[in-house]
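quick one
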Amino acid sequence: AAALTLVPTPIGNLEDITLRAIRTLREVDLVLCEDTRTSGRLLQHLELKKPLLAYHLHNEHKQVPHLLERLAKGERMALVSDAGTPGISDPGFLLVRECLARGLAVECLPGPTALVPALLKSGFGAERFAFEGFLPAKKGRQTRLQELARETRTLIFYESPHRIVKTLTQLAEVFGPERPASVSRELTKLFEETLTAPLGELAALLGARPAIKGEIVLVVEGAKQERSERSKYNSRDDRDDDLPDD
Ligand code: SAM
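structure w/ S-adenosylmethionine:
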């Protein structure tokens, strides 16, 4: 059995937890979590009693050495976040990296994460996509948006409800207001909604609401491949460039 297991937990609907996730939480010695109250409630719902230890962005560097010591002695731990998959826009990376460096086995259970249902509900291409997580709040934001403007893969962002209108407005400026986009709010919860429209329209639509609440994933369709770029990737003869588009 693995020393450390990353255990995804529901992003809203409490039914979204796997049998294996529950078994793992039952079997481990310790549950590392972002917020002991949030995860305490989940364990209570699952009728499990386990020691919990806070492991979050603000203490992970301090916690890692002593956790590694305990893991090396044979203790088994689960890492959970407040919601979804640990390590996806949540703490996890550091502990996983250090475990692997010491030859401690790490297991990652598949399970809920907000980006997948948002991507699929957008109806945009899902064969290739780029998960961008949270955009930089201030510094580097414009640069990142500029860099992404010509990305042809579907783009996925996490965003907070109080910044979504600003982000849609900025994206409309940089990507153009006609670029199709999709906002998924409160996935798997009672007031779940997905709005799909061009960036400019979405900005106006949500900007007209008195307040936006809940958690949000923003999905933006990739840029259309430019003609010159397309011929670069095309294995067909260059003469095709002289033919009209099919
Ligand atoms: N680890 C999580 C995951 O696997 O999706 C993400 C954690 S991140 C700190 C929180 C962000 O995830 C929110 O700001 C929102 O963008 C997104 N999110 C989480 N739950 C969501 C839900 N039920 N509906 C829409 N977005 C959600």
